[in-house]
Specification:
binds zinc ion, mainly alpha, homodimer, Multidrug-efflux Transporter Regulator, Chain: A, Domain 2, disordered C terminus, two-stranded antiparallel sheet, 3% strand, 2 domains
Chain lengths: 149, 149
DNA sequence: AGAAACCCTGTAGTTACTACAGAGTCAAGG
DNA sequence: CCTTGACTCTGTAGTAACTACAGGGTTTCT
């Protein structure tokens, strides 16, 4: 199996495959006489595993760790749950902040109705005003002297 | 106002401020005799605006465009709504995929109960199995020959 | 034989910062 | 007067996970 076929089979760009190899995630395959990489089915499995994890937004460094578990099945699994827990917590945190973001943006969107000049655009006004506010929730405004806890 | 004070006032790291200047988002301020940057209140306003937009996850290139609108208030505002619309669409798309992700991860998490060796961990099994599936939803498996549309 | 399509290595670009390295400036304390 | 510490300056390199060449060699099809 050459790199292009592997890429086709796994739905991955060839450059990405070479990148995974360089990063130590995918073992360097044998080379055929012409120097082309020659992959076997284990490579396809491993690549699919990596892509599946990436689809779960698991960072490559953690995928690396998971792959080590796959290869050393006698290790204690405690770290696996923790890895997933961490990932889940990250996703939930991001979800929460994205929901807040959606609210902000859609309320912002409502500020502009018909066409007009930028100087009278409610969106722009709101953005400028919000940036002025002391109590702006979204970005970390704070009085450095008054509230130095 | 020196760069450190500006950073304090806006809640932004000094390196980030210099980065914004280099990127053309924050105008280069005057320099005092010793070569230190000397900022005024307009810089603080502008910086706050940038941070507010960034908190809305608006990319710097779009923040740049918004700043141009702020400076040319006579321009047509049509592009502003569109910018926000685009941003909103991106956020909603990300929100949708994150929700799916959360579902996957939490179901995955349920696969592992008590402690055991990695070879018997339901999480790991599931990850490996899912990567094998033809119909894996999350990452783009596809039969290149059979379904070549 | 010649062109298209594939493969190789290595480097640089993307985003939005963050982290130095190495040097200069300034106020306060001993 | 000298030193220490906090601040500032420039410029470069690193982060995550790819993506996009440049400049070559090889295979395959016609
Ligand atoms: Zn998958
Ligand atoms: Zn408008
Ligand atoms: Zn804000
Ligand atoms: Zn387990």
């Amino acid at each position: 199996m050459r790199i292009g076929e592997l890429g086709q089979a796994a739905g991955v760009d060839v450059e990405t495959i070479r990148f995974y190899e360089k990063s130590g995630l995918l073992p360097a395959p044998a080379r055929s006489e012409n120097g082309y990489r020659a992959y076997g089915s284990t490579h396809l499995e491993r690549l699919a595993f990596i892509r599946h994890c990436r689809a779960l937004d698991i960072p490559l460094s953690e995928v690396q760790r998971l792959l080590e578990f796959v290869e050393h099945p006698n290790a204690d699994c405690g770290d696996i749950d923790q890895l997933i827990d961490t990932q889940l917590a990250k996703v939930r945190a991001r979800l929460k902040s994205l929901k807040a973001l959606e609210k902000q943006l859609s309320s912002l969107r409502g500020r502009c109705g018909a066409k007009h000049i930028a100087g009278e655009c409610g969106i722009l006004h709101e953005l400028v005003a919000a940036a002025h506010k002391e109590a702006c929730v979204c970005h970390g405004h704070f009085e450095p002297k008054t509230l130095a806890t």
